[in-house]
Amino acid sequence: MEHPKKFSPGTSAIVFLLFAGFLYICVWSPSNPLLPFVQPSGSPKDFTPVEFAVKDELDLALEEASMRNKTVIIAVVNRAYVEQSVNAETTMLDLFLESFWLGEDTRPLLDHLLLVAVDKTAYDRCMFKRLHCYRLVTEGVDFGEEKVFMSRDFIKMMWRRTFFLTEVLRRGYSFIFTDTDVVWLRNPLTKLSLNETDDLQISVDKYFGSRRPEHNLINTGFYYIRSNNKTISLFDKWYSLKDNSTRKKEQDVLLDLLRHGVVTELDLRVRFLETRHFSGFCEDSKDVGAVTTVHANCCRHINAKVRDLTAVLRDWKRFKAALTKYPKAARNITRSFGWSRHDGCLNSWKPQTLT
Ligand SMILES: *[C@@H]1O[C@H](CO)[C@@H](O)[C@H](O)[C@H]1NC(C)=O
Ligand SMILES: *[C@@H]1O[C@H](CO)[C@@H](O)[C@H](O)[C@H]1NC(C)=O
Ligand SMILES: *[C@@H]1O[C@H](CO)[C@@H](O)[C@H](O)[C@H]1NC(C)=O
Ligand SMILES: *[C@@H]1O[C@H](CO)[C@@H](O)[C@H](O)[C@H]1NC(C)=O
Ligand SMILES: *[C@@H]1O[C@H](CO)[C@@H](O)[C@H](O)[C@H]1NC(C)=O
């Protein structure tokens, strides 16, 4: 019973008021930079002020990461992509970042990468790496665990992503979207069309050389989209189909849209990116002299992707080292180059690896 003697009722009241004021600032002030860290716990109604703060944070994050022409590179990460399991030597995020270091003319691009973290661990990891980070809060969902391809939560996470990206377009930013299981070996801006009339340039699993949407197997793991009314309409339309597309992932919904006339309807110009430049495990680029990105597509599990992308970076380092050592044999080295087999990913579809 020491305290009542030390503090007069007046002092207690002041302390109480100060504390209440502090709480008020912490919890309610829309300008409070701490807010995005707050875990959602209240009802949706309690959360209205947070929405404002999150929007301001997004503006800020986009501004910081953007090139002068309002273009950003966006990747989404969750805990499974940033945390090392006991036996792993690296993480997907680290491999992804390492590729910007090893690639040609890719280091400056890191300044324009906005990492969107869907859980706190991913956000902390991003901040630790001193990158541009944005925390995407979703109420009542834990996006931290690995989401196995086509599981319910996987699909939910993908839709949340589409909603977020629509918002980015609405704010006037064009962007290159990249999954983090894509390694960047060269600067893609040198292989993308910079013609302003091209609205969407998207990677494919297999390239058939056709410009017709119905002939292309798009992959939303890598694309470049310009912000304009047509692309905003496209994304709005895409997202609006969320609840009428059970058991379909968002990529298939977009594929359906493209195949069923949305391109003509919205007067969109869509280009499908060649696997020669934008390679993947579904179809390897046959030209290491032109390859820009490599996507661990056609692969089911993160461990397999990490393993096989590590091999891709090893192949690339060997290739670059050989070029440095024998500059006169560059043609031969390029022609005789072959990618390592993607055994981890091939096996990831077998039932026994699911355990
Ligand atoms: C935007 O600016 C970057 C960096 O200056 C440049 O590489 C890129 O080609 C520009 N994008 C467009 C669409 O002009
Ligand atoms: C962009 O593409 C359009 C349509 O193909 C073409 O008419 C125009 O000349 C191109 N612009 C540039 C700068 O290449
Ligand atoms: C896009 O839409 C906005 C608002 O509806 C309109 O003001 C603007 O002129 C449109 N821009 C183009 C290029 O159609
Ligand atoms: C869902 O899709 C089906 C088939 O395309 C269509 O007939 C139906 O009207 C859609 N329902 C809603 C609610 O959009
Ligand atoms: C390239 O390879 C061919 C046959 O493998 C060989 O005859 C030629 O000398 C090589 N050229 C160089 C510059 O190493």
UniProtKB/TrEMBL annotation:
Its EC number is 2.4.2.-. The lineage of its organism: Eukaryota, Viridiplantae, Streptophyta, Embryophyta, Tracheophyta. The keyword S-adenosyl-L-methionine does not apply. Keywords: Cell wall biogenesis/degradation, Glycosyltransferase, Golgi apparatus, Membrane, Signal-anchor, Transferase, Transmembrane, Transmembrane helix. It is a single-pass type II membrane protein. Residues 109-309 form the Nucleotide-diphospho-sugar transferase domain. Pfam families: Nucleotid_trans (PF03407). Its main location: Golgi. GO terms for cellular component: Golgi membrane. InterPro entries: At1g28695/At4g15970-like, Nucl-diP-sugar_transferase, Nucleotide-diphossugar_trans. It is found in: Golgi apparatus membrane. Belongs to the glycosyltransferase 77 family. The gene is LOC107915994. This is Glycosyltransferase. It comes from the Eukaryota. The keyword Cytoplasm does not apply. GO terms for biological process: cell wall organization. GO terms for molecular function: glycosyltransferase activity. The chain crosses the membrane at residues 12-31.
